[in-house]
Specification:
With 338 residues, the protein is α/β, with parallel strands linked by helices. It has 10 helices and 13 strands. Helix 4 (118-131) runs antiparallel to helix 5 (157-165) and helix 6 (178-189) runs parallel beside helix 7. The longest helix has 24 residues, at 57-80.
Length: 338
């Protein structure tokens, strides 16, 4: 019951000020009936003295009728103020973004200028990025000597993260085919109906393999409206990098110059409306993905709706019951004889 009244609002709340009319009516009634019960001497034929008249319960019950009338007046004022209950809800629509992560898995991604190495750092940061994009379809392309799709576009991010975790160097021939990686990513995203399509291409080297030139792949991306963000991964100067792998899987490392074709990556990004970033450690890589996350926000529209229901009926029923009770009392217990 309390919840019902707490949810009630009024279409015309100003009319509730009419309740003040009840105050003078009550004052007038009290003043008028202040001496209703007076001492009256009733002569009796068998007694020489006079018997005083005293009030009984009917006299007090007559005041209940007035209380009923005042309550009815109050209820009628509430009814004309139009009590209403409301139900509010939101209609939320989201316009997601298609994102393909094109990840270099060449052997140089085992370099230890990142912790524990470049590829594991890239996988960890990309996984956090995926978790922050619940409304988007995300896919994964990996490349080294050539490229293939590890995970097509999907909203099932658990699948994407699982396939990300399985990525490692040596899955395909070694090398750095940036053009093949980008063109494979574009092929996977170009026909999707999403209004915004993005490729995040991450590499640590110089294009040295593949059948498609990187700038040609960038032109294809531009034609299909795909925006490319490029990330060069590697410290400045030298890094502890793999040079050979023993039959037992042991990797030999040595300090080597870090070579990233930044000019090429900048051209790819600028020609497609994207941006180039350089990551030199785990922290800077995380910040780069955070920047991309801010720039590529899904569009979410919220519309507020409110359904209102007229709630005069309980008050009308209460008023009718009180009026009926007054009529019943007047014609039974409080009936006057002419």
């Amino acid at each position: 019951m309390m919840k019902f009244f707490s949810d009630i609002t009024f279409a015309h709340p100003g009319l509730l000020w009419l309740m003040l009319v009840i105050v003078p009516l009550v004052v007038f009634y009290i003043f008028k009936n202040n001496d209703t019960v007076a001492d009256v001497s009733i002569p009796l034929p068998w007694r020489s003295d006079k018997m005083p008249y005293t009030a009984n319960y009917k006299n007090y019950l007559r005041h209940v009728l007035f209380a009923f009338r005042m309550i009815v007046v109050a209820l009628l004022i509430i009814i004309i103020a139009r009590p209403q209950s409301s139900t509010s809800y939101k209609n939320i629509t989201s316009e997601g973004i298609d994102i393909i992560v094109a990840l270099d898995i060449s052997s140089s991604m085992l370099s230890k200028d990142f912790s524990p190495n470049r590829i594991e750092a890239a996988k960890k940061v990309a996984t956090s990025f995926i978790e922050s994009r619940p409304a988007d379809k995300i896919g994964l392309v990996i490349f080294s000597g050539h490229a293939f799709t590890q995970c097509p576009l999907t909203t099932d991010h658990a699948v994407v993260k699982n396939l990300f975790s399985q990525v490692h160097t040596g899955m395909i021939d070694d090398g750095t085919a940036i053009g093949d990686g980008l063109s494979t990513a574009v092929a996977r995203i170009k026909d999707d109906p999403a209004k915004s399509k993005v490729v995040i291409l991450l590499t640590d080297g110089v294009n040295n393999m593949g059948s498609i030139a990187p700038l040609t792949a960038a032109e294809i991306a531009k034609v299909f409206g795909v925006r490319v963000y490029t990330i060069g991964v590697g410290t400045t100067g030298k890094a502890l990098s793999p040079v050979s792998m023993a039959p037992d899987g042991t990797i030999q490392y040595t300090m080597m110059d870090v070579e990233i074709d930044e000019a090429l990556l900048k051209d790819i990004a600028s020609s497609t409306g994207g941006q180039y970033f350089r990551a030199t450690d785990n922290e800077s890589l995380s910040k780069i993905y955070a920047s991309i996350d801010k720039m590529e926000k899904s569009k979410i529209q919220e519309r507020d709706y409110t359904d209102r229901t007229e709630e005069f009926l309980p008050f009308a029923i209460a008023a009718a019951l009180l009026l009926a009770s007054e009529i019943l009392l007047k014609n039974t217990i409080l009936k006057t004889v002419p």
